[in-house]
Specification:
This protein is an alpha+beta fold and 631 residues long. The protein has 2 domains: 268 residues, Beta-galactosidase, Chain A, domain 5 (Distorted Sandwich); 256 residues, no CATH class. It is 45% helix and 24% strand. The protein is built from 17 helices and 22 strands. The protein has a 9-stranded antiparallel β-sheet with strand order 7-9-10-11-20-17-16-13-14. Strands 6-5-12-19-18-15 form a 6-stranded antiparallel β-sheet. The protein has a 5-stranded mixed β-sheet with strand order 4-3-2-1-8, with no helix packed on it. α7 packs across α15, α8 crosses α11 and α10 runs antiparallel to α17. The mean pLDDT is 81.
């Protein structure tokens, strides 16, 4: 190798070394490259793990699907074993349908094919909301039956409706059906609802189409159960509780009921014509033309939680008889409407007996006198306050002959008062029987019957008690205002308070009724006027004076939460009675003439003869072994 070649190789080697030294990466560049390599490696590992997780999850999903399918198959097998052909109706979507006429809107549910609510279109609640006889959340309606060893309830299944929403008017009639299929289009339980355009009655039937074997297995009957918590519709829940209960009527018998203050189960012991879920002004009634069998049948009332928006829970349970046709069928009807006497009476099966008009003569007075006159006055299209006033005047007119006798007797007793005082003074230390004989002798001589003033009052009592029964039960007064009272069917509150005052809130209430105050005040003045007319003295007068103060005070508590229409009636009756007294005393009764007539009676032959009343008193004394004084 010559010198030039060696020199060239050294120069090229130096250039390569210098290039390598100048182009080598810095420490920071080396660190960045290392970081990049690490990131790439981590990404590759993450993707690999993700792919592995995906594979694992996919395998898990496949396994879960297999398990779920296995469980579903087992559940379906269990459902099929228990419910048989009905098992396919266990699942479904909740849907509602309505059937409507001029009187009401009935809402039905495909779950159980049942009524879930009934709205009466002509009425509102006290708060002016839609009036519902019952609602879905607080009611049950189902049929129970035995099927292949298991008891089934129709409320657990979804029915197929024939329509969605239908309505009818006038004399037309609609029919709405629900079908619960039993695994075949030719086997099903059918509910049939039929409604006329202007009626409060909904006809209902259940048919076992192609299922006669099930009917036979159940002795041609299915257990019907209907339960509802009655929603509050009026101003006072406590007042509604006094009129809410279960009524029922056996064939060819009077209506019976569970006492309103009770919570109990009443076993039905005879074939029953109808069962009523009776509320204060409205009712839902189950009616059976064939009769409800007494086997395992009962009605029941239960109290509800205080402070809730419900009054009571009412329940009826009984066997619904099916006929023995190819498709066994059972029929019922439901009255869903107001407790208005004329409406209930037109069905001719005693539904009007739910309205408490009083027993015996009291009820007859309301049925044949008060209600016809009230309906006649109602036709005048005047306010109900004026109707009550006119009714008061009418009653006072027909009772006037009795009132006249009472006033005449009072006037005679007043004229005889000086002579009565003489007898009391003369015989103050004598035996009571002797004094009584002298008093009876005076009455006989004067031609005065001491019971003449009592008999007219006794005869008026049925009218007073009839009105006491009529007003709180009269739906005609419901939500009818007069003067300051917004609703004559309940109390009129001019002052209210929220605080619970011991004893006062319990016995009087948290309000003040002005009509009750006026009634009590008028009773006080009417009683005082009567006392002034008779001029009574002695112990009896003292007792009357005590009653004059006690009775109005007691009635303040008793009537404060009662119907303001009733208090208004008693107030007007007292005022009219005081006006009668004033007119009779001023223009029709002459005490001087009465006194002269009494004196003439004393001189009449035979006036000394013992009266029948006096003889009866003496005979009673002899029976008790008392020694009668000689004259």
């Amino acid at each position: 190798m010559d010198r030039n070649t060696l020199t060239g190789l050294l120069i090229i080697g130096g250039l390569l070394i210098g290039y390598s030294w100048f182009t080598q990466p810095s420490d920071s560049e080396l660190a960045a490259a290392k970081s990049q390599r690490d990131s790439l490696r981590a990404l590759e590992e993450t993707e690999a793990r993700a792919s592995l997780d995906t594979v694992i999850k996919a395998a898990s999903y496949v396994q879960e699907a297999v398990v779920t399918e296995t469980k579903d198959s087992a559940w379906k097998a269990e459902q099929a074993m228990r419910f048989g052909g009905f098992s396919t109706a266990r699942d479904g979507d909740l849907k509602y349908s309505t059937i409507e006429n001029e009187k009401m809107i009935v809402t039905l549910s495909n779950k159980g094919g049942r009524m879930v609510s009934v709205e009466l279109k002509d009425y509102k609640t006290f708060e002016q909301k839609s009036l519902m006889l019952f609602d879905e959340d607080s009611s049950r309606f189902n049929l129970n039956f035995l099927y292949e060893g298991n008891y089934l309830s129709t409320s657990d299944f979804f029915f197929e409706p024939s329509d969605v929403d239908v309505s009818v008017q006038g004399k037309d009639r609609l029919v709405f059906t629900y079908r619960l299929y039993a695994g075949s289009s030719s086997k099903y339980i059918e509910y049939r609802y039929a409604l006329d355009g202007d009626a409060y009655v909904l006809d209902y039937s259940v048919s076992m189409v192609g299922l006669a074997d099930i009917a036979v297995a159940n002795n041609n009957r299915m257990n019907f159960e209907w339960s509802m918590a009655s929603p509050s519709k009026e101003k006072s829940v406590k007042q509604q509780q006094l009129y809410t209960t279960m009524f029922f009527q056996y064939f060819e018998d009077d209506a019976d009921y569970i006492g309103e203050s009770k919570a109990e189960r009443q076993i039905l012991e005879e074939t029953t014509s109808w069962i009523a879920f009776k509320q204060q002004f409205f009712s839902a009634v189950i009616i059976s033309d064939q009769g409800i069998q007494a086997q395992e049948a009962y009605v029941e009332t239960q109290n509800v939680a205080e402070g809730s928006n419900y009054v009571k829970r009412l329940t009826a349970s009984f066997p619904l008889a099916l006929d023995q046709s190819a498709n066994p069928t059972g029929n019922l009807s439901f009255f869903l409407g107001p407790n208005k006497y004329d409406i209930l009476q037109q069905y001719g099966i005693g539904l009007e007996d739910q309205i408490d008009l009083g027993w015996g003569f009291i009820g007859w007075t309301n049925e044949f006198l008060i209600i016809p006159v009230f309906n006649l006055l109602e036709g005048l299209n005047i306010t109900y306050g004026i109707i009550i006033l006119l009714l008061t005047i009418f009653i006072k007119v027909i009772l006037f002959p009795l009132v006249w006798k009472n006033y005449i007797s009072s006037a005679k007793m007043k004229v005889l008062k000086p002579e009565m005082d003489e007898i009391n003074e003369k015989f103050k230390d004598a035996e009571p029987m002797k004094k009584q004989q002298e008093v009876m002798g005076l009455y006989k001589e004067a031609g005065v019957n001491p019971l003449a003033g009592c008999i007219p009052m006794v005869l008026q009592m049925p009218i007073l008690y009839a009105m006491f029964r009529f007003f709180p039960s009269s739906i005609e007064l419901r939500q009818q205002g007069f003067l300051w009272a917004e609703d004559l069917s309940t109390y009129d509150a001019i002052v209210t308070w929220d605080a619970q005052i011991p004893l006062l809130s319990s016995f009087y209430g948290n309000h003040i009724s002005l009509f009750t105050l006026l009634m009590a005040a008028s009773l006080f003045f009417y009683t005082r006027t009567n006392m002034q007319m008779t001029m009574n003295t002695g112990p009896q007068a003292g007792q009357m004076k005590v009653m004059m103060y006690i009775m109005p005070f007691m009635l303040l508590f008793f009537f404060n939460s009662y119907s303001s229409g009733l208090s208004y009636y008693y107030f007007t009756a007292n005022v009219v009675s005081m006006l009668q007294q004033a007119v009779i005393k001023k223009w029709f009764i002459n005490e001087e003439q009465i006194h002269a007539k009494i004196q003439a009676n004393k001189k009449r032959p035979g006036s000394k003869k013992k009266s029948r009343f006096q003889q009866t008193m003496e005979d009673a004394a002899k029976k008790r072994g008392l020694k009668l004084p000689k004259k």
